[in-house]
Structure formats: structure tokens, C-alpha cells
Amino acid sequence: MIAVNRIGHEPPLTFYGSSFISDPYGRILVQAPRDEPAVLVADLDLDQRRDWLRLFPFFATRRPDTYAPLTEPHCPPVAPVGADSAPRGDTGEGAISTS
């Protein structure tokens, strides 16, 4: 598994780095620092992956025919903030109706 995170501050968010590469059993092979950029390189044992897939045969038991409902919206779309309000400086007062 490769877990990637950036570092730095982009208000209001702070990113804490600590990207890592782990083996199929969750043991961290290499980890980046929290406060500086890094390039991570790790040796992977592909036999471990085969063993793990034998224990947990996710590919053999997956059901792609059931995925469609996951992509359907389950709530009505939400208008962007301010989309239903009048533009700045236009309060709607003094408008002349032509109907």
C-alpha cells in the first residue's frame, strides 16, 4: 500500500506529510517526515502479496454488477453558496415589474 499526503499549510488546512509504503500485512516499510518533502523507495516482496491474496481472495469474490448504485446520487444536488441570493449591490428594492 502506498499512502500519500502533502506537507504545508493552505488556510484553513494544514497538511502533515507522513506518507508511507507498507507491505500487504500493514508493516510500514518506509515513511516520510511530517515537515519536509521526500521521495520514498521500498523493496517489495511480491510473494507476500500472493500469500495475502490467497488468504483474502477479494478479486475472486467481487461483484461488479452491484457497483452501479454506488455511483447514483442519493440526495438532491445542492446549489453553490450564494447562488440563490441577489448579486452584491442589488437588493431587489425599487425593481419595476413589467407583468
Structure report:
The protein is of the alpha+beta class and 99 residues long. The protein has a domain at 1-46. The protein has helices at residues 46-55, 58-61, 68-71, and strands at residues 2-3, 7-10, 13-16, 20-22, 28-31. The strands form 2 sheets. Strands 1-4-5 form a 3-stranded antiparallel β-sheet, with no helix packed on it. It has a two-stranded antiparallel ribbon with strand order 2-3. The model has no long low-confidence stretch (mean pLDDT 83).
List keywords for this structure.
18% helix, 99 residues, two-stranded antiparallel sheet, flat, single chain, 3 helices, 3-stranded antiparallel sheet
Estimate percent helicity: 10-25%
Number of helices: 3
Radius of gyration over all CA atoms, rounded: 25 Å
Order of helices and strands: EEEEEHHH
The count of strands amounts to 5
Which regions contain 5 or more consecutive residues with pLDDT less than 50? none
* Main sheet: strands, sense, barrel: 3 strands, antiparallel
Sheet with the most strands: spatial strand order: 1-4-5
Task: Furnish the topology, listing elements before pairings.
Elements lengths: L1 E2 L3 E4 L2 E4 L3 E3 L5 E4 L14 H10 L2 H4 L6 H4 L28
Antiparallel strand pairs: 1-4, 2-3, 4-5
Summarize, please.
The chain is an alpha+beta fold and 99 residues long. Helices cover 18% and strands 17% of the residues.
